Give the backbone structure.
Amino acid sequence: MQLDLQKRPLSRHLSRHFLFLETDACCKGRKKGLFLGLSAEGAGTFGRLMDIPPGFIQLLPDGKEGPDAFRVEAEESFAKVDCPEGGTLCIALHGEKSLLISGRDCTLTMKVRLNMGESILETPRGYEVIMGSERYVISPKKGKGSLEVAWELENLKSSDPVLTFVPEDGALELVMMDTDTNYEVPEPPATAADAAAITKADFASWLDKLVYKEDPEAAYDLWIGFQYRNGQVLTDVDRTAHHYAKAMEQPFAALAFKDINCRIGLLNALMATEEKSGMIPKEIYLRDLVPEAAPPVCGLALADCDFAAADKDLLEKFYCLFSKAVNWWFVNRYTKAGCFYAYIHETGGPGKPVLPVGRPCVSPDLAAYLILDCQVLEKAGACLGREDVSLWKERREEMEKVLCGLWTENGFVSKDAMTEDTAPTPSPLALIPVILGDEEKFPFISALKEKAAGLDAARTDYLYAEMLALKVPALAAKIIENGVEKTNADSAAAFSPACAGALLALKGKEC
Amino acid sequence: MKAPVFGDRAKFDLTHAVYAREGSAFFIIENYYSHFLQLSTYKPGAWMDTNEFVFNIHAVKDGREAPYSYLGDPGALRLTTETGVLDIVFTYHEYLRVYSTDGIGLTLEASRYRPGMPACDCCSGAVFLPDGTCEISYGTYGKFRFNPIRGRIEIKAELKEGKSGYKGLCILLLPDEEGVLDIALHEDMVEITELPDKYPPIDELKADGFARYEQFQKNYLKPAAGYEELFQYASHTTWSRRVKPGGNYKAPMILMHYEYLNAAFSWQQSFNGMSMMGDPEEGWRMICAMFDYQEEDTGQLLGNVGYLNANRGIQPPIQGFALDFLMNKCGDSFLTPESCEKMLPKFEKWINFWVTTRSAGRGDDVTMINSPNDSGWDDATIFQDGFPTVNPDLIAFMILLLEKTGLLAEKCGQKEKAESYYARSKKLLDTLLNEFWDGKKFVTFHEGKPVNSLSVACYQPIILGKRLPQEIIDKIAETLTEEGNFLCDIGLASESFYSENCNYSSRTFVHGRVVAPVQLFLCAGLNLAGKKKEAALIAERFCDNAKQKGCILGFPPRIDTYAATGKPVYIMPGPIASDGWPWSSWSACSILTLITCIIPEGREA
């Protein structure tokens, strides 16, 4: 699979490394060149560089900044640079921690941008960037390195270091390791080409887990999207600028997997971050959580699954965590009018409040999510022989009554949870109940399907569009035709691993 | 009891100091630009100039703004308007109370510290909940929940045009028909899931503030005559930054600030501990506090601990010095065999961290560092030649840490181990004296060459007291009391006035400024070395300035020109997240050591 490093970084599953090319195609004065970064909060943003932000290394083949001075080609497992003076570099990732560079007849200069409090030392391991408890080690296996750096006394920081590596007998071999003070990194292979072969094989084997394998770009977006966040493996918002995971996006990524256990595994990872009360935080960072509720969409990922195929231990864990998560809504967001959103962000999307500011809002999309969640708990609970399954049946039936009570001849309304005043629910939230699918039980679904089929997918929040498309084939066809890439007007492309996952699910359904 | 007050018409207002109290996350400051009082909490760890969780405090009467003056004591912060008063009462719980019987209401208006910055970008919204309360949510900054005991709440919110989010937000706390307002404002970083069924009476909460402050003062000896008021302010500054267990805090610790660097810093806990000569058990507990966060595998102590996050940076190993000082003043009866047995392995691991990860590679205990944070002398000229360096100041800390670890071993019956640590300490002392004293000062080395520095850091090994030869003690005392070298009207400058590198502009730390912990090190060292009068002389100069200016961490020694070069001094006006602006517990605890021990002993000598 060809990779355009201007649009997608070279990276791999669970690796923080990402390599990209900035060409400033839209003439916004961005610094051009080949850059290597590590995904972390506060690290620089892809394609928005005015100067090298902290946490980045600019790679200068034969000392040239480029990118016009050299040519870069990439596939999903490596990047190859044709250097200005005729030599070549091959760059590939190995596992979660290492990046290898193999060069022939080429020098390589690295301009490192340090964050406040960071420094670089020459040690027996090579050159170590000291980043708190983290260490970034650049180790020349073949070739000779030199370091230029000075201490800026009054700025309390090092000047930005410059490393230069010259080949030995024409050969340059560098290993770059993302590690910590334990320095425990699996032994990398001898060359970048060897590392690339391993990565290629890893990606191919990962493809086998998916419901649809024939869209390698979408699969790659999803594959590299998985990162460690707060000790769990979750998918980031994207690998270019937003180095954090959104709770709402995980079920969409889960839909890409054919095995129910892979889906449950990802949902369990998400719910491992839940607060003591059961609230799932809407955003999950490396070491931080945003303690505000995300909409309860996890049921979407399992609604059509056969629970008999689930691993019992995984399912048991899922049941405990998910019960708590769904229960949170019935304890903290409940009146006799129904479960409500307290804040607009709890809907999962941007937008204006439906009711006057400060009013708690009973909304049809929330009712639909909770119906689906209760259905999943009923099925899972039945599979496990749980006695409390009847609770989820009661709650599902209650939410179904609430939902039907919100339907009017003009469409859905939302209701003030205390005063029961109503206001029309805006699209696309008003269409969400289509995910319930059962037209016999919910006659309004056919009308919703018709409206959803006519939705302009390009102008609708992609996740909502994909959610609706799961039950609306005409909409699914439009989304599949558009593809997953949301190319911005400038040189950077923001893409969403979760959207890629949902697209794969839609394509899998269409097959 | 006598207690310090902060008010817009008092000696100290809240532009540099904050209104806060032990055990409460809230703090109030007076905005330098608008002069509004502003409310926030320390838990998110945000710095004031970028903090998005800030609320202007407006008093209102009959729907109109009521201008107020304010006065705060350990019990409450009182707003006085033309027609009545309103009290804001901080408590030891996760709430404050807003109380008035004069028909005065309060509006909290979402704001920022610096003018012109957007007020509500992090505001996720405000909502009325079925239990009658009102909640606002601010993402990772936390939540406020308003519980109307008497009175009512209104929300006024302005939404952004064309985009989601808020442009403005006000929460109005309004009295009932009888003119009574009593609102409990709860805070939490995650969720407020339970509210008390009943709240204590306001007077009980106010009395609690005074009682806890009075109890806290017992940690200290009495101040020297003439420093009684400074004692109140310094002890209050420390007390009000004392956090209770919760979040990352396993036991009470002391924050450095509320408005910047709002965390408990590693070595500052020891500074606080050594000042508590009125209760050495508590002092010893403070010295040991950071060991609760010691890394099992490396032995490293964390650099600082915030409510949410802990920072793995390094701070110097001053625990031996702090314990040495405390024992010198209070004896060692507080070191029970049980506590020695508990702390011995922790101290050993801490030593091991330094001698392995910071080894100079000589096969002995001499350390070598690559960052100024390891020594604490941030921008001192001892680092002007770059890194790595071998520092006598750090070696002095290691000498005392080794010796005191030997003492811990001795006190729990491990004699052989004790002897081993004593021997290492003695050997390191010999190395310090033989290799690092050049006849006039202690010298830092970079790549084998001495750094030509006129930093006062060169004299920090005076903390070794009488372990140093008399001629070295005499020389250091002579240098530090020479007028116009380091000594000036307000204490010891951190770089000699003879130095062309002397710089005390706004964002410097120990490049020339007169800084509280530097006074503490050098005065404590001179005192321990028997130079009590000299120590008191320096201490009085610093503390006399603090009496006028408050418990601020660092001061420029002069604001006209630099003595060595004649160049003008530029001190940036207005608030700055640096030593020169906010009151700090680090300054306060240094002052407490100076006024309760160094100055009185100097006067008696």
Chain A touches chain B at residues 117, 119, 121, 130, 132-133, 150-151, 153-154, 156, 181-182, 275, 277, 279, 287-288, 290-292, 332, 335, 342-345, 350-353, 357-360, 417-418 (CB under 8 Å). Confidence is low (pLDDT under 50) at residues 44-50, 487-493 of chain A. The radius of gyration of chain A is 25 Å. Chain A has two domains: 2-200, 208-510.
